[in-house]
């Protein structure tokens, strides 16, 4: 290394940052719920009388695990949608453009 500072500058729009934060928050809440379902389900397995309820909490936790990639996919699609310029949207029939072509030049 020569001692030079190599800064990386990324140009992302305000909308993209807001969307990323919202999906990140949604993912964190989902992960917390997964932990709660599995922790409480595990505790309920200590008693024979609550095993049935514990099993259902494991099922709910498993569904939450399936939701995790759905959240990531939704974020990816959402970000791709706002990154697509207006002219491309018009040509392909996509709706709800939030940015104008000038932002992409």
From TrEMBL:
Pfam families: YrhK. InterPro entries: YrhK_domain. Keywords: Membrane, Transmembrane, Transmembrane helix. The chain crosses the membrane at residues 28-47, 53-71. Residues 21-76 form the YrhK domain. This is YrhK-like protein. It comes from Pseudonocardia sediminis.
């Amino acid at each position: 290394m020569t001692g030079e500072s190599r800064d990386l500058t990324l140009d992302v729009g305000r909308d993209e940052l807001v969307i990323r934060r919202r999906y990140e928050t949604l993912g964190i809440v989902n992960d917390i719920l997964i932990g709660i379902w599995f922790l409480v389900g595990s505790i309920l397995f200590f008693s024979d009388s609550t095993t049935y309820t514990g099993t259902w909490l494991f099922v709910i936790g498993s569904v939450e695990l399936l939701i995790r990639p759905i959240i990531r996919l939704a974020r990816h699609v959402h970000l791709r949608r706002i990154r697509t310029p207006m002219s491309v949207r018009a040509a392909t029939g996509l709706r709800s453009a939030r940015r104008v072509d000038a932002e992409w030049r």
